Amino acid sequence: MPRLLRTLHVAQQRYVGGPDKIELIVADNASTDATAALAEQHGCRVARVEKRMIAAARNGGARVARGDMLCFVDADTQVHPETFNVIARALARGNAVAGATGLTSERWSLGIVFTWAAILPLVWLSGMDAGVVFCRRTDYGAVGGYREDRLYAEDVMFLVDLRRHGRKSGRRLVRPRGARAIASARKFDQHGDWHMLFSLGWMCVNQLIAPRKAERDAQAYWYRVR
Question: 185 and 106 in contact (C-beta within 8 Å)?
Fold first, then answer.
């Protein structure tokens, strides 16, 4: 999280609307470390969320936010210095219901390259991306936020819901250029550079044919410390 906070402060200072217009919130999802204290030291508001679920953490942060635009990013990501300027311009055009800045990896290997190559066609076909996800507060409320009945892929379903909602008013998902975030490679470091192609692929298959196993696998991958 320290790297994320440092990059957020840079982007906050670069925001053309003034740094005081950017509110930084850290959702402390029942952590047992110094997450809350570190966030407060960096001048962030802390939203304490006791329900151990990624979707609940995202919704918890949104609940205490005061702005008209909401941005969501994982704690191990690094954001681009122009993030808030790019997002503000994208939403100001009026044709976007939501979007994401895009993502690159902090390191590359053969396994990671193959993993990204497998995912990219889905990004191109769906128009959905990762990185810093953003939308207006009104649209967030209209779809009910992130689905808290999902242990994983809550970010995908959030964008699916927003895309469906946006069609009613002729708006779409956007992928603005110029502010791609940097994803941590810690999961690859922990599980191996090829694991996403196989482990997560089977998890998606099991979601259809063996949902209880998929839930156990998701708990082990995202919620239990190994």
Answer: yes
CATH number at 73 reads 3.90.550.10
Residues in the chain: 226
Nearest-angstrom CA–CA distance, 99 and 106: 22
Residue 102 tokens, joined: 């895009």
**83 is written with which tokens?**
């993030």
What's the whole-model pTM score? 0.89
Q: Are 43 and 59 members of one domain?
A: yes
**H or E element: which one contains 71?**
strand 69-72
Q: What pLDDT, in 10s, does the model give residues 5-21?
A: 999 999 999 999 999 99
> Of 190, 201, 123, 129, which is closest to residue 158 (Cα–Cα)?
129
In a shared domain, residues 13 and 123: yes
Strand partners, 111: none
**Parallel, antiparallel, or unpaired: how do β-strands 96-100 and 133-136 relate?**
antiparallel
Contact 180, 131 (CB under 8 A): yes
Q: Give pLDDT tens digits for 177-187.
A: 999 999 999 98
182 contacts 102 by C-beta, under 8 angstroms: no
The CA-atom distances, in angstroms, between 96 and each of 89, 90, 139, 194 are: 10, 7, 11, 35
